[in-house]
C-alpha cells in the first residue's frame, strides 16, 4: 500500500516488534515461572530461571489427572469441530443462497444469539431428560450447539463469494443438493472452514465451566477443567500452576501455529463481505 | 437459477444446525425468561409464579446497584471498543505492508486469542501482583508503587487493558481481511490526486473499511458488554465494586443469599435487553452513516 | 430410563440422518456415525449393574489429597458404591451447587450455615437427627447446623483466625506475644519503626481483609453485650442494636488502625500469595485463617512460626470471647435417591481413624472429642482456641435477605473514610435492604 512511501520501514518494524513483545512476554514469563522452584520464585520472581527444573511439570501432570483429561480434550475438540464444520456448512449454503423463505429472519435470530442469556438450569433439565447429561455425546452436541449461530454466520459470508454460476452448472449435471454442498461447496470453503475449525478448537479446548455443569463424571472431564481445579488448589504455589498452564496451552499453540497460515489467509479471503 | 433440487432439500440441510441452535441456545434463553417470573430457588418441586415481581425488585431495591453496574459496563465497553478498534486498524495497516516477517507479526499479534480466559486471567493476575509482578518492579524504579487490581481507581483501566490485549489481534485480522479486499487500483488513482500517506488512509482506506468497521465495532461492543469470566478471575468485581460490570453483577447474584435464582434470571434478561438496546442504537447509527457515505 | 434413552437416541438419530440423508459418499458421515454410536454406548453403560453412584460436590479443592485417599478406601469397603466426587474453586461453586440441586444430580452437598439459613433452603436437606454417627461430634458444633431441633448439616471442622508471626523477627526486636490491645498496637509501632511490614494480608480477594473484622468483633461487641444480635438477628432487625452503637464503631476504628499496619498495596495482593511470602520473611505477621498453616509449612519457612489470638480489647474477660466458625459441613439432599449410601459415607467420614486422617491432612480444628492434631503448632492453636468461649461469626447470625456491605471495610482500609461514617453507611445499607428480608 502507498502508505509505505511515507512511513520508514524501520519505524514500522519498531512498532510491530513492540506490540509483539507485549503479546509474547506475558506468555514467556509463565514458562519462566514454571521452570523455577517455589522458593526461587518467591524470592526473585522475575529473574530468568537459574536451572531447568521440570518437577513442576511432573507435579502438574500428576495432580491434574492429565492423562485422562488430555484424551477427553482431544475427543471433544475433534468431534465438535468436525460436527460444527459439517453442520454449519450445510446450513450456510441454503441461507446464503436464499433457498428457503425467511433467511432474513434467520440471520436476525443468529445475530441475537450472540448475546442471548444462558440458562443453566433449563439446559440441565434438557440434558437430564434426554439422558445426554454426563455423556460424551451430550457434551459434544452442547459444545457444537452453543455457538453454532456464529459459525453459520461466518460461513454465510464466505458462501456469497462462491459464484452462483457454479450452482447452475451443477444443477444441470443433476447433482443432488447434499452431494453438491458436500462435494463442491465444502472444498471451496476450505479456508473458511479452517477458520471456523480453529475458532471451534480454541473454544472447546478452553471451555472450563460447562464440563463441570454437564459432565458429572470426573473421568470425562477435559484438560482445562483439570487446570481450573488448580486455581484453587495451587493458588499458593504458582510454579505448579504455571506448569499446568504451559501443559494445557502447548497443544493449542502448536495447532495454531500449524493452522495459522490458513486461518489468517482464510479470514482475509473475504469472510466479511456479506 | 435452474431449480432441480426437491423443495425440502434446503430445509433438510439447515435442519441439523437449526436443531442444535434451538436446543442449546434458544431453549435455555426461553427457560431463563420463564424462571425470571418465578421465585425458583433450586427446589424444582416447590416454586411459584410471581409475575414481574423480580423485575420490579431489580428496578427498585437494587436500582442503585443495577445502574452502577450498567454504568461500569458502558465505560468498559466504550473504552475497550474504541482502543481495540483504533489499534486494530493501525496494526492491520502495518501488517498489510510489504515488509519482511509480516506473517510472523500477524501470528504473534493474534496469539492471545488462542489462550482461554482462565489462563489469561491467571497470567495477568501475576503481572499485576504488587509483590512479585513485573509492573510494580518497573514502577519501583520510578520510586512509586500501586496495588494495581486492588486499587479501585485503577482496576477498571487495567481490566480494559487486559481485554484489549486479548482481543486486539482478532480485530486486526478482521480489518486485515477488509484491507485485502480493497483494490490497489483505487490507491493508484488516488495518488494522482495527491492522496498518499495519511491522506490516502483518511480519505480512501477508512471510508472503504466502513462496513468492516461496523461489524468490528458491533462485535467488540457485544463482547465487552457480555464479559464476566475474565473479570471474575481478575478482580471478582472488586475492589469496592469498581469492576462490577452487568455480567459480573448477574453472576454474583447467583451467589448471594439475598437473591433467588429466579431473581438472577430476571437480571440475566435485563442484561440481554440492555445489550439489545445498545446494539439497535449502534446499528441504526451505522446504517445511517453508511447511507450518507454511499 | 427407557424413555430417556429413546429421547437421546431420537435426537442423535434426527441429527445424524439429516447429515446422512440424500447424498452418499463423504467423509463427514463417519463423524455423524460415531457420534451416534458413542451416544448409544454411553446410555447403555448407565444401565449395567445395580451399582449405586454417590454424587458428592465440594468447594474445598485444597483438600484433594484427603478425599482421593478416603474415597478410594470407601469404595473398596463398599464395592457396590461408586463415588463421583467433584470439587470446584469457590468462585464457581454456587453455580455448580445450584444447578446440581435443581437437576437432582447430587446426593451429598458441601455447605455451611448459609446453606440452611432460610426456610426454603432447609427444605432441600434431609434431617440427620438421631443418626448414630452424630454422637461423636461436639455438641456446640452440631448446634451450629441445626434448626428447630432438626440436624441439617454434619460439621467438618472449626476455623478461626490467628496472627501467625515470625519468631525470629520478634526476638530480634525484643518483642513478645501481646496480651492486650494496647500491647498489640505498641508492638505494631515497634515493628514498623524497625522498617518491617507488620502485617501481611492478601487483600485482593476482598474476604481476607474482611475476616479480620470477624476476629475483632466477638471480644468488643459480644464481650460487652452478649446478646447484641439476639436470636436470628432479632435485635438488629428491631433496631434495638445498631451498627452505629459505640461497640461497633470501636470495631471499625480498630480495624482501621490495623489496616494502617498492612504491607504496602495490601489490596492488590492475591490471597493465595500471602502464606508463601510470609514464609519467606516478607513481613512480621500474617493474620489469616488457621487453615493457612499447611501452605506456610509447604513454603518451608527458615524461621520458627508462632501464633497468637489477637487481643481486641484491654479487658482479659472480654478477650476470652473468641471467634470460631464451622469451616464447612455435609448436607444430604432431600431428593436424593441414594440416601442410604450417603449416610454410609457420612458414617465413614465420622469414624475416628478417618476423621483423624482428615484433620491431619487438612490441618483444621477437629469438632470431635479425642482428636489431636499432628502438627504441634496446630495443636497449640487448638489449645489456645479451646481456652476461649468461641462464638460464631456475626455474618452467620445475619437475617437472610438483608445486606451487610462488607465492601465498606475495604474502603475503610484504603480511603480516608472515618469509622463513624462507615458505621452509619453500614447501618443505612442494612435498613435499606428491608424489603428483601425474608
From TrEMBL, chain A:
Top-level taxon of the source organism: Bacteria
Keywords: Cell membrane, Membrane, Transmembrane, Transmembrane helix, Transport
Domain ABC transmembrane type-1: 70-258
One GO CC term on file: plasma membrane
CDD domains to which the protein is assigned, alphabetical: TM_PBP2
Any one GO biological process: transmembrane transport
Family: Belongs to the binding-protein-dependent transport system permease family.
Record PROSITE patterns: ABC_TM1
TM ranges: 12-35, 74-93, 105-127, 139-159, 180-202, 238-259
Entry keyword annotation includes Cell membrane: yes
PANTHER family on file: ABC TRANSPORTER PERMEASE PROTEIN MG189-RELATED-RELATED (PTHR43744), LACTOSE TRANSPORT SYSTEM PERMEASE PROTEIN LACG (PTHR43744:SF3)
Topology in membrane: Multi-pass membrane protein
One matching Pfam family: BPD_transp_1
Main location: membrane
Compartments where found: Cell membrane
InterPro entries given in the database record: MetI-like, MetI-like_sf
Protein's name in the database: Carbohydrate ABC transporter membrane protein 2 (CUT1 family)
Automatic annotation (TrEMBL), chain B:
GO BP annotations listed: transmembrane transport
Pfam families: BPD_transp_1
Keyword field: Cell membrane, Membrane, Transmembrane, Transmembrane helix, Transport
Residue ranges of domain ABC transmembrane type-1 in the record: 70-282
Bilayer-spanning residue ranges: 69-95, 107-127, 154-179, 200-222, 263-286
GO cellular component: plasma membrane
The keyword Aminoacyl-tRNA synthetase is annotated on this UniProt entry: no
Cellular compartment(s): Cell membrane
Topology of the protein relative to the lipid bilayer: Multi-pass membrane protein
PROSITE patterns named in the record: ABC_TM1
Gene3D superfamilies noted in UniProt: MetI-like
Family: Belongs to the binding-protein-dependent transport system permease family.
PANTHER family to which the protein is assigned, alphabetical: ABC TRANSPORTER PERMEASE PROTEIN, INNER MEMBRANE ABC TRANSPORTER PERMEASE PROTEIN YCJO
Name of the featured protein: Carbohydrate ABC transporter membrane protein 1 (CUT1 family)
Species name: Cohnella lupini
TrEMBL record, chain C:
Domain of life: Bacteria
The keyword Cell membrane is assigned to this record: yes
InterPro entries, sorted: Bact_solute-bd_prot1, SBP
Keyword Lipoprotein: yes
UniProt-listed Pfam families: SBP_bac_1 (PF01547)
Stretch forming the signal peptide: 1-21
Keywords: Cell membrane, Lipoprotein, Membrane, Palmitate, Signal
PANTHER family, per the entry: ARABINOSE-BINDING PROTEIN-RELATED, POLYGALACTURONAN_RHAMNOGALACTURONAN-BINDING PROTEIN YTCQ
The protein's name in its UniProt record: Raffinose/stachyose/melibiose transport system substrate-binding protein
